[in-house]
Records
---
Amino acid sequence: VELVESGGGSVQAGGSLNLSCVASTNDFRHCGVGWYRQTPGKEREYVAVANSDGTIVYTNSVKGRFTVSRDNLKKTVFLSMKDLKSDDTAMYFCSVCRNFGQGTQVTVAA
């Protein structure tokens, strides 16, 4: 499965960014999809997961600020991030059916 992420960048604290990830798999609608993030020296952690049954789970630190969504026809998963904080700075990875993309960097300046 090839995943192509886009939308990372640098913003000031309180700003917004939108990430997207296009998948190559034809089985996208049956896949769990989501976003993970990792900072140097730390384990990759989940940020938000949208399961194929419609359930969505967010890690506590992003609840109310981030929104994950999916478009099964376009085989795309999105992450809308608002009120960004410096602690959100990380490499963000898209996940589709347990495959990971190359990552896109998000940097939030305090």
---
Amino acid sequence: EVQLVESGGGLVQAGGSLRLSCAASGFTFDDYAIGWFRQAPGKEREGVSCISISDGSTYYADSVKGRFTISSDNAKNTVYLQMNSLKPEDTAVYYCAARRRTVLLSLWVLSSWAFEYWGQGTQVTVSS
């Protein structure tokens, strides 16, 4: 059974940092790309970042570039999202998702429709 479990969310002041984790199980980790998405109340889900587990290539939304860093620990089947310089507009439920692809393409890396498996989400709240 495929499982993606997010953790690390919480309440932080603007300018602060959080590190989210996505623990994966039930599939061959190296065969997949893992993406982070977020959804704020009343807004559509948006792609934040993506990583190819096999070659480590990454992709970021313009809104988080330079502030967020995605990485993976293949020994632990875990992907991280380090979030620095957080802003109130980063407040959302953050989800990780998996797609069985090893090569990232801009066509789909930040598109929720492209991902097959999803976690349950973790809340991130940034206070001003």
---
Amino acid sequence: QVQLVESGGGSVQAGGSLRLSCAVSGYTADTNCMGWFRQAPGKEREGVASIRTKTGSTSYPDSVKGRFTISQDNAKNLVYLQLNSLKPEDTAMYYCAAGALGLSNWIRSKGLRASDFGYWGQGTQVTVSS
């Protein structure tokens, strides 16, 4: 089992920044990918960043590319999501996820498909006002 706990959410004005953290614990040997997802009310959960934990390869959708950055600190068992130049449309609950993706899955989905991840945190709210 893998446990994930997110923190760092909050309320900011448009153009502001936040850094989300995900504390990872438990048996992680059978996972190789960490992702950040978000879900706004009435919308589907969408992947905003992923990282292959052994290679450090990252992936982002066009909607956040250049504004969001995922990183990991293996010594502290933390995964971060730096959010810059925030927009009101970034308002959502943000979730950390862990999964095991084969290479073919990574190529196909870039680690941005929620169904590829088996472990989820409880989420942290990000609210961006205009």
